Amino acid sequence: MNANTSRQHPAEWEEGAQLFSRTARDLPTGRHQFHRERLMAQIQQEQQEQQGERTGRSAAPATTRRLRLPRPAIVLPAMAAAVAAAVVAGVAMSDGGGVRDGGVATGPALTAEVGAATSKGLPQLLDQISLVAAEESHPVVKPGQYVYIESRTADTFLKTVDDKTSLASHALHRRQVWNSPDGTKGWLIDPAVNTDSAGETLSLPDEQGNTPEGSLNHPTYDYLAKLTTDPDQLLALIYKETKGQGNTPDQQAFTTIGDLLGESYPPAELYSALFKTAAKIPGVVVVPNAVDAVGRTGIAVARLDETSGQREEWIFDKKTHVFLGERSVQVKKNTGTEALMKPGTVIFTSAILRRAVVDDMKQTPSQAG
Predict the structure, then answer these.
(1) Burial of 333 (0-12, 13-18, 19+ CB in 10 A)
(2) Which of 101, 232, 293, 300 has the CB geometry, 3.0–4.6 Å to 349, for a possible disulfide?
(3) Residue 121: pLDDT band by 50, 70, 90 thresholds?
């Protein structure tokens, strides 16, 4: 789709934006701001182009627009479908020259060798990972403190220039996020999201005055601390809370646990229980060789989404079984525009470098001494 596919009245933009905002509040901590920014950027571009048509002037060159698929299923009214389709499909628009998105240069699609997968040894591997997780230091997060997570991320997306769609990627970049234990205060620094290099607030309430409660899609530390650590009960809760999200219940359950590993701070007992829970999800396999965003090799616990043809991988150190990061790799051919994402395309990759508890917003562990 390109920006000229459909035109909408400003009132329809507003309705679509409000509904998207309500849905985005259910996204994992830190991601709701990402999706809101991208939708509003798309709306702004549409408005500029319509203004240009009315005045006879050319619209300003479009900057890159890109969006990772949000986890929950998003249903927008028909009036907002044109904007929503462009956003949810992850279609990017660009003027084609020296393109940057919020400070991150774009380049060719990310690729990797599609590693073989097997179910052999999965229970034993997850048992070992669970034991290691139980031994890791997880200090209790107290009121007034913040969970700090630093990672490196990169991704591949669809980019449209002059009605021609191709693949592009955001270069590997640093991402830092802070969140209070109750989830009401936070800060994000990610040049692929923030227009300001200093970052932007994630603090609540949002623009509509809403303060969502903790949930699996808004995994505050305080919420996670109250969850059961019984694998069967935990899996049942995950299926219940994520009903209707994702392509299948099993894939969404796997994705939900992956989100908790990547950018939240589960208490020690829950962290260990997550891996025992994952072992109970049908279709989970082992990928003996996988590489995280910074090139660290490891072994992955993975699951293939049969609908999208993408395999989500949680990568662990082969010797220590410490969690390194995650990636999503296209392993099956697709149809339509998505066929551009051929097998071996890395849709998203990350590496967790630091996860700590700090005393102040925007404070790093090194500053805390």
Answers:
(1) exposed
(2) 293
(3) very high
